[in-house]
């Protein structure tokens, strides 16, 4: 009874290399939206000491001086490569849980008892690499939490096949003893500090603690983690049809934004995009939150962070309702005199599009019943035309600056890779 | 030139996933006598692409493969899941760039252009050659 966790190695950086054979041994970093922070590093860049999440301006000069290559993020391309990898995995086993853009859990329970699971893992790795160019690492273990541990062991033991299986009690205990408790899936920094105070420093010590004690002292969630570390499966492979629980649209700005006249249309753009996503998911939301913040990296300037949630009496996915709520949330959190660097909108508390619960009291802002209207707008916007709402910024999505994006190699006729 | 009629092509956008034509509404009257015979229109994607997860499109540049019918700016269908053999047309990475040539494994391994004006590329000792995939089709637009 085994599960596998397939993890694409330095995924974004690996993607950037697929159609650039000239970059085979060159250190690569990929930056977040607006080229703010480093969000992916090739092995060579990691060896140069480039940390995950560091602001780009802090490492830029040294990295480029040493011959590194930098890319703005190209999510269209990464998304397509991710779909290819996941499709291949789905061809191997009946149950696959796509956990993130670069990770998936596979259920291997259907394989026979004496099947060479490790060999199967190596085969999957080879095939994904050959078919897509994406290198993957695979951890195989009896539970999800242990597959993460097995994956960490690939790195710690520097396993050349990049596939590691931990099955026997001895193998599992040895791996756990070498895993610091904060590297356990679901144990964050805060929780690991608490655990350290209780003299629990590595995963083995956590696994050897009585789960009932953990439940009593900490939480049911951590108790489940302990049981999973002991090889008792508590988390199943989930199918990916479960609906999203929230939708976030946020961006850092290329240039600082100081006045409401500029900021409001940007937030409206986010609201329109978020509402589109919500309808695509066939959901309605009853909470709309907006946040704004200044840049934490401009030390000498006054800092301000604002966050407000508006509750809607009746769930909606009509852009017009969400725009009204976004405005209501933005006005009280906006303060003049600050240079804003980032804003965003979050839709939450979802109910499915078809179910409807009427509010006990008549809501003066009762959502629009005319869902056909939004359907037409979505249809129009799917083609070349763009229908805007009055409060939107029609010029550009947001004042973004991204200068180093690679071509959309796999999704655009005009940006295909070239062969001589 | 003799031409054979193969079939009709859909006037809609060519996408991989067609909604089958026979998914029609149920009528109370006499059913259409043609409904049993309706087939989905010819799909270029299905014709050109066998394994979509492993297939990439690459733009050819130059005249070196004219003899194989690959003109400048042709779109190459490259399937990374097909193992190339002697004489396969491949896309390979050599000296940091992609080339499209015919793979010769004997008498000496080389990448052979299909145009006498271009020299074959021999792989020297220490030189790295990576075969990216096998070219299964070339689309020339006129």
Describe the structure.
The complex is a heterodimer of chains A (420) and B (142). With 420 residues, chain A is an alpha+beta fold. In chain A, 38% of the residues lie in helices and 21% in strands. Chain A contains 14 helices and 13 strands. Chain A is globular and about 65 Å long. The longest helix of chain B is centred in the N-terminal third of the chain and has 5 residues, at 44-48. Chain B has a single domain, classed as Umud Fragment, subunit A, CATH 2.10.109.10. Chain B is mostly beta strands and 142 residues long. In chain B, a hairpin with an 8-residue loop joins strand 5 and strand 6 (121-122). Chains A and B meet through helix 4, helix 5 and strand 13 of A and strand 1, strand 3 and strand 4 of B.
- Arrangement of strands in the largest sheet of chain B: 1-2-7-3-4-5-6
What is the number of strand segments of chain A?
13
CATH class bucket of the largest domain in chain A: Alpha Beta
Structural class label of chain B: mainly beta
Proportion of beta-strand residues of chain A: 15-25%
Q: Shape of chain B, please?
A: elongated
Helix/strand order of chain A, N-terminal first: EHEEHHEHEEHEHEHHHHHEHEEHEHE
Helix-strand blueprint:
The complex is a heterodimer of chains A (420) and B (142).
Chain A: E1 3-8, H1 11-18, E2 28-31, E3 38-41, H2 43-47, H3 56-65, E4 69-72, H4 75-92, E5 96-100, E6 103-107, H5 117-132, E7 136-141, H6 144-156, E8 163-165, H7 169-177, H8 189-197, H9 203-207, H10 211-217, H11 220-229, E9 247-257, H12 260-280, E10 283-294, E11 305-316, H13 319-333, E12 340-352, H14 371-382, E13 418-419
Parallel strand pairs in A: 2-4, 7-8
Antiparallel strand pairs in A: 1-6, 1-7, 2-3, 5-6, 9-12, 10-11, 10-12
Helix pairs in contact in A: 10-11, 12-13
Chain B: H1 44-48, E1 55-60, E2 75-79, E3 89-94, E4 97-104, E5 110-112, E6 121-122, E7 129-139
Antiparallel strand pairs in B: 1-2, 2-7, 3-4, 3-7, 4-5, 5-6
